[in-house]
Amino acid sequence: MPGKTPDKEPVENGGYRGGKDLKPKGKKASKKEGDDEMTVVVPPSKSSKQSSVPPPNDAEGDVAMDDAEKTAEGEAKVDPVAQTINDIKSNFALLDRAVALFDARFSLRALRSISSIRKRLTPDILAQAISETYASSSASANVARQMLLAIGRSDVPLGQQLGPDMEVDSEPKPSSKNGAKKEAKEVIPEVDVFLGILTQVLLHDSKQHQQGFEFSQFLVDQIRSLNRRTLDSLAAKVYFYYSLFAEQIAPLPPSLQSPIVSIRPTLLAALRTAVLRKDVDTQATVIVLLLRNYLLTSHISQADLLVSHTQFPENAANNQVARFLYYLGRTRAIQLRYTEAHEHLTAATRKAPSSACALGFSITATKLLLVVELLMGDIPDRATFRQPNMETALRPYFLLVQAVRVGNLGDFETIIAEHADAFRRDGTYTLILRLRQNVIKTGIRMMSLSYSRISLRDICIRLHLGSEESAEYIVAKAIRDGVIEATLDRERGFMKSKEVGDVYATREPGEAFHDRIRACLALHDESVKAMRFPMNQHRLELKNAQEAREREREMAKEIQEGDLDEDDLGGEFEGM
Fold first, then answer.
1. How confident is the model at residue 27, as a pLDDT?
2. Looking at the predicted structure, is the pLDDT value of residue 576 above 60?
3. Which of 102, 130, 188, 209 has the smallest count of CB within 10 Å of its CB?
């Protein structure tokens, strides 16, 4: 009827005319007066579908086919080439924010994305990204052409799309020439260096070391011509690959004709500039590269002079600190300063990242640490060799430790002969050769613990020494160095051991406990130093303090002139 309200009109989808409405269970349909449509269509849940009348035979199949078609369409739209190019260009916004806000954290985020990009990076993808970023008339066109020349794509034009085989579905870009010129003018040097780093990574992964070294020289010259603090973290990465390319070009180190010798003046100049500009990233990276450079050519005295005349930055990145401690420990081990080497190598293994990508560094540092512990007269813990990811790599050193622990000189020489190639690859062969005296000392110490008195002849036979005079000399030196607590009777030709006391009555447990406490306190101090605080917060505090002092002066002046009294101030102002 015309006079009826809309809530009593016939409804669709099986509604009723009467006052009783059929409502689905578990659902509440709200109605408002004046609405044109009163029917609320609620899609049934999966449980209601299963409990209600079964659908036609092909209903479920149709749904499955629809989902499959949607999934196929979504997968077809994701082009790996376009995705890689978009990932590269997405870092440009981070670099722009790093320059605008003067915050290096955005640059570090861009650098961290390189590890995921390099797996999909190809010369064609990088060439297209460079072509779309630069215009032929831009100020950075020379840098772009050098990058294209380095990756073998010098025929790719700037500011244009490539051929149909490289066309990808991406966001529309301004096609006008003015828009392209405007975009080219906005390219900042940070973007140039970032794309240059990608070029270095591509050349290194494709083992084009000579081309990578030549391009790195050009990129280093470009960085040295700029004076921008927002380039610090990017420049450090450029110097890293610059040194890495030089190490892999013939003649290889330790030859003095190797290119690593020719790049030392460049690295030293970069270090001097970084210290003057307080560039922490470049300073830490270049110090580590110079130490590695000197050790590769066995210039130990120059490495020691570098450490003594430079100060490694305290707030450097943790990875650089770990590398610096490793090379410093290696230098001290070669200089026979085993105690300092043990401290540095222990700190390096503790600071090494726990991720799988840093496993090689952890294994290398652990191998050198094991040798240094043996040179100090200590026996490494067996749990070190039981780590699942290091067990195979540390197998030769496990056999070496067993021979040293027992004091068997014959087994020691046999193990060195069998695993000489592995020890030479690790750079520990010359240090392991020094262990012969330690093996003899260990054997003497084991015999001093086993026998209260033993003749020099028996010592000579057990240690495979040439004569009793050699055994007498070795025993006397071990007693003088404090390796054993015994007395030597030359007339009767025997060694008499002293009674072993309680080790807990000595200072050794306290010293070990003190070393652990000191390491924990040092870790706490470094964690506090690594905390970030708001920038320019001290200036805001100084401004507020200055405003407070000005208000006090004004109030004191008004009191002196008689404009204010204690009642106006609430009785809390006592005067100046």
1. 43
2. no
3. 102
Element (H, E) at 74: helix 59-77
Q: Residue 4: what are its φ and ψ, rounded to 5°?
A: -75, 150
245-259, 341-355, 434-448: the lowest-pLDDT one: 434-448
* Burial of residue 83, with CB atoms counted within 10 A of its CB: 0-12 exposed, 13-18 middle, 19 or more buried: middle
Residues, the chain, total? Answer: 576
HEC string for 417-437: HHCHHHHHHHCCHHHHHCHHH
Distances (CA, A) of 238 to 58, 157, 262, 360, 565: 61, 26, 17, 22, 68
Under CATH, what is the fold of the domain 409-499? Answer: Arc Repressor Mutant, subunit A (1.10.10)
- Rounded CA-CA distance 122/116 in Å is 13
Note the pLDDT tens digit of each residue in 70-91: 544 555 567 888 899 999 999 9
Domain boundaries, the chain: 79-164+178-248, 409-499
- Which H or E run includes 489? strand 486-489
Residue at 488: amino acid letter: L
Question: What SS3 state is found at 69?
Answer: helix
Question: Minimal CA–CA distance to 140: which of 211, 217, 195?
Answer: 195
CB atoms within 10 A of CB 397: 27
Residue 536: CB atoms within 10 Å: 7
Tokens of 465: 């020494």
Is the separation of the CB atoms in 98 and 106 below 8 Å? Answer: yes
Q: Which amino acid is at 432?
A: I
- pTM, two decimal places: 0.70
Q: What is the mean pLDDT of residues 507-535?
A: 82
pLDDT at 570 over 80: no
Find all residues with CB under 8 Å of 531, minimum gap 6, and list them. none
Query: Percent of the chain having pLDDT more than 90?
Result: 41
Closest among 165, 241, 161 to 203, alpha carbons compared: 241
User: Alpha-carbon distance 83 to 107, whole Å?
Assistant: 21
CB 444 within 8 A of CB 463: yes
- The residue type found at 75 is E
